[in-house]
GntR family transcriptional regulator (Bordetella genomosp. 12), 232 residues
Amino acid sequence: MQTRTLTEQVAHQLADEIGRGDYPVGEKLPSGRALAARYGVSAAVIREATERLRTQGLVRTRQGSGCTVIARTGAQGFQVPPEIALDRAALGAVYELRMDLEAGAAALAAQRRDPTDLQAMQAALSALELHLEDPVQGSEHDVAFHLAIARATHNEHYQRLLHYLNLQLRQAVTAARANTARQQGLARAVHGEHIAVFQAIAAGRADAAREAAWQHLRNAAARLQLDFSLTA
C-alpha cells in the first residue's frame, strides 16, 4: 500500500472534519499558521492541502481573508488522482491532455496577451534561468511560467484547469527537471523550448505558439519516458 504524502494526509483529514461539520459551511478554517502548527507541517504543505480542498469544491480561498467552507461534500468533477506521478500510464494520459490544453492556451495567449502578461512570463523565465540545475526551485519557476501563459488567455476556465493540472503535476515536473539536470547541456536546451514559446506569444504568432508549446510538452513527456501507446 502506497504511503500518503503529508499534503494528502492533511487534505484528507481536513476534508473529513469539514464533512463531519467540525468546520460548518460559511465559517473560515483556522489560519495557515495555526494549521501548520496543529499538523506539524510547513506552510507550503498547508497551502497545497487547502488548494486541494478548493479544487474539490469544499472551500473558497481569497488572498488576505483565508479559506471559507462552502460545502461539506466535494464536487464530483474532474480530478487527477494524488498518486498520478507513480502510475506511468495514467501520467502519460494526463500529459496527453495537457499537451493539447496548453498548446491551445499558448495560441490564445499570443492573441490576447497584454504587457503585464508578458512581464509575468519574462519574470518567470528569468527566475528559471537562475535555477536551471536546481530541480525544486526550477520546477517552481517552470510551473509559474506555464501558469503565466494560462493567465494570458484571459479565460478563467483555462486558468483554473491549468492551474489545477500544473499544481497536481508538480511532482512529475520536479522529477523531469532532476533527470534533466543529470544530463550535460539538457537543462539549457529545455530552457530554449520555454523561450521559443515565449517569443511566439510575444510576437502574437498563435500557430507558432501552439506548435512550440505542444512540442515542449511532448519533449517533456519523452524525458519522463512516458509511452502514449499505454494510454489507449
